[in-house]
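Same chain as my last thread, 142 residues:
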Amino acid sequence: MSKAPETIGIDLAKRHDKTMLTLMVDGRLDFADADTPWGQAVVSLLAERDAAIARAEKAEAACVEWSDVSQRNYQRAKAALQWQPIETAPKDGTEFLGSVGVSYQGGVVVLHWDKDDGFIDWDADFWDPTHWMPLPPPPETP
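reply #2:
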């Protein structure tokens, strides 16, 4: 039984003003006319291969980009959910969780900055928090 030839590579080339297929078969270089039905089929397959490679490269680049964006968003969210020094708390009226260091309500109170009274809660009670973190988003309603 004869062994089928092992094709190592196929590519297109210009030779004698004709489009030729360049093939490496069993260690020897061979050429075929790209205008034959067989040659046109191979040319079509090469075009599909190149398009698939381009799509794969584009998809890989998009995955890398989304991975980078996801990592940045994760780091931002992680930082936002950690206690931060009170000096960095918003002073524009935005409500946040304040760590007040006492046993009242577990030591955490919803506060906001008031230019006249400082850090106050909903009842306008004054607090002297040491740390703050943003409020979590409210739960979704069905």
